[in-house]
Amino acid sequence: MNNSKTNNTVQVFWVAMGSMSSIALSILSAAILSRYFDKNDYGTYKQIVYVYTTLLIVFSAGLPRVFSFFLPRYSIEEGKAIVRKVNKVLFLAGLIFSIFLFFFSSVIADVLKNPDLSYGLKIFSPIPLFLLPTLGVEGIFSTYKRTIYIAIYNTLSRLLMLLFIVGPVVIFKGNYISAIYGWLIVSIITFVMAYFFKRIPFKKIKKVNTSLRYKEIFAYSIPLVTASIWGIAIKGADQFYISRYFGREVFAEFSNGFIELPFVSMITGSTSVVLMPMFSKVFYENKGVDKLVGTWQNVLNKSSKLIFPLVIFFIVFANEIMVVLYSERYEQSSIYFRINMFLNFFNIIIFAPLFLAMGKTKLYAIVHMVLAIIIWSFDYILIQIFYSPIAIALNSTILNIVKIIFFVYLSSDLLKVKFLDLFPLKSFGVILMHGIIMVTIVKAFQVYLSVNLPLFLQMIVCSLLYAIFLLITSKFFKLDYISIIKPLIQRIKK
């Protein structure tokens, strides 16, 4: 049992490392482009990214999730055939996606009220053809407990994207079109790289024709596509309304600020990647849910120790962080950043792997559909009443918190567990109190630091002081932060 927990921790660690490098390079890219583009160009660039990420959910057809669901249930020999089968569909989906973007670019530009978007999307249109077949790397390597390759792949691909997208802008003083041409080149390189990476787990493995049919794959993935479409509708409502009603400059401010704390998505996303194949195997072999619930509670407890202190720090220092990252032109982004930070207290709850592993994709889709209708309706009403992008941001955050709470309620019902028993509430309270006390002390120190140090150095000193104070005083609050990484250290020593 201990070995299992240790192994899971190590697997999560490597996924997290890949995620961390991806997030760090993405932030660095946004920070550089924010300084080199004017707000109109940057807003258009972010709209292109918004259109791509929104439609990606539709055209990927839920197929990347297929790997985590089916591979644990079949032999590795059949797994080789399954990967090839799904890759063919992803390539076809990428082709359709590219054709759609090219011919409907003008329509999309009209909807978002940005005429420059039409030309930008036409230039961007070949990119999905190469990027969709790269999807699913995480599901493959997490299934076969070789997540170190996820870290390597994500780091390499993001580093290449940084060089090819930001490079032309910085070196040749290019605009957002230059960045898109760089993206096209790196998408081709990433396509080739993903092809070789996806073959790694199956080296020296003889391919055996799989009994898994396309009908079974789509029976699982299509309801998931529906859920994903509604999920992106929930996530994209605020971006659509702000883009359409408030223009490119406000959209640029909103895009930079209304983001999850990167470390939160890093930790929860990495954990989800590792848990999905494990949960799928538990339900497939009908081993019961005691182990599953215990794992969930353990993950929740560890995640809160890592995430809550970070969220508290970023809420308090939101203004300073936005200025350091994006320059003083984007200080207004701190309002959106602070609002969305409160969602991160709830995002530690990972419910998707449970529903997907149980095959409850239809229920998952229905709940998302209802919430999507509510959020789009509420956003429109708020526009008519307040005409404020801040009101849209608040509504989005509140309804997403409601979504998480409702899914936890459904989870407790499916697992036959009391709702409150899924939360280590006492631990949550202690962690929050500890973080608030320590950040208050650090904020007081900043008053002195602001006289003597530039803002960038202030943030470095404040973050270090905060971490030191947390560790030094943790024993008084009976919090053992070090224990979270002990299994990893022990594993490395071995």
TrEMBL record:
<feature type="transmembrane region" description="Helical">
    <location>
        <begin position="363"/>
        <end position="383"/>
    </location>
</feature>
<feature type="transmembrane region" description="Helical">
    <location>
        <begin position="49"/>
        <end position="68"/>
    </location>
</feature>
<dbReference type="InterPro" id="IPR050833">
    <property type="entry name" value="Poly_Biosynth_Transport"/>
</dbReference>
<feature type="transmembrane region" description="Helical">
    <location>
        <begin position="121"/>
        <end position="141"/>
    </location>
</feature>
<feature type="transmembrane region" description="Helical">
    <location>
        <begin position="306"/>
        <end position="327"/>
    </location>
</feature>
<keyword id="KW-1003">Cell membrane</keyword>
<feature type="transmembrane region" description="Helical">
    <location>
        <begin position="12"/>
        <end position="37"/>
    </location>
</feature>
<feature type="transmembrane region" description="Helical">
    <location>
        <begin position="217"/>
        <end position="237"/>
    </location>
</feature>
<dbReference type="GO" id="GO:0005886">
    <property type="term" value="C:plasma membrane"/>
</dbReference>
<feature type="transmembrane region" description="Helical">
    <location>
        <begin position="389"/>
        <end position="410"/>
    </location>
</feature>
<feature type="transmembrane region" description="Helical">
    <location>
        <begin position="455"/>
        <end position="477"/>
    </location>
</feature>
<feature type="transmembrane region" description="Helical">
    <location>
        <begin position="176"/>
        <end position="197"/>
    </location>
</feature>
<keyword id="KW-0812">Transmembrane</keyword>
<feature type="transmembrane region" description="Helical">
    <location>
        <begin position="89"/>
        <end position="109"/>
    </location>
</feature>
<keyword id="KW-0472">Membrane</keyword>
<protein>
    <submittedName>
        <fullName>Membrane protein involved in the export of O-antigen and teichoic acid</fullName>
    </submittedName>
</protein>
<feature type="transmembrane region" description="Helical">
    <location>
        <begin position="430"/>
        <end position="449"/>
    </location>
</feature>
<keyword id="KW-1133">Transmembrane helix</keyword>
<feature type="transmembrane region" description="Helical">
    <location>
        <begin position="148"/>
        <end position="170"/>
    </location>
</feature>
<dbReference type="Pfam" id="PF13440">
    <property type="entry name" value="Polysacc_synt_3"/>
</dbReference>
<feature type="transmembrane region" description="Helical">
    <location>
        <begin position="339"/>
        <end position="356"/>
    </location>
</feature>
<feature type="transmembrane region" description="Helical">
    <location>
        <begin position="257"/>
        <end position="279"/>
    </location>
</feature>
